[in-house]
Amino acid sequence: xxxxxxxxxxxxxWFDPACPFAWVTSRWIEEVExxxxxxxxxxxxxxxxxxxxxxxxxxYQRAMDENWGPVRVIVAAAELHGTxxxxxxxxxxxxxxxxxxxxxxxxxxxxxxxxxxxxxxLAQYADSDEFDxxxxxxHREGIEKVGQDVGTPVVAINGTAFFGPVITRVPRGEEAGSxxxxxxxxxxxxxxxELKRTRTESPTAD
Length: 206
What we know:
Helix content: 40-55%
Number of helices: 8
Shape: globular
Oligomer: single chain
Largest sheet: 4 strands, mixed
Strand order of the largest sheet: 2-1-3-4
Strand content: 5-15%
Mean pLDDT: 92
Distance between the termini: 44 Å
């Protein structure tokens, strides 16, 4: 008698391309996809939206002002050309921001669009609120699953969402799969809410 195949598991991942923590966690999910049967769906959220109305230090406020551009362009691309462009644009932007350390968000948008083969004209939406309703709706969908006292990433594991996991290095191979298995186990218990310890290092993109 054959053993039934395990059901495909699902991850819903909300990201802001500017967030280094979301970037590392997203690279972990890619590793998990190599060793576990999972389906990942990618969604935008926005640290700029999350921090609206808060009193921020000058430099952080400037960063929030600049970070509207990339996520707006991803939403515009999804609306005008299809949601299949969300992940490739995220990968391109994230590589430019977190690996190549490109600080100019206009350059990030321009080069990312070129890399994925989308029209350069989409860059105009970085400074437009035309698709902000869709951006805010996607952001709200993720936040409503976990509450306001979070950042990025938000990951829903088989329907149960958490802020995180927050990791600073990308596990590879079976180590990535084991971390996923642990997260699935925690998500399956309806009364589990959080684990936390003081972080002693910054995320490493490599």
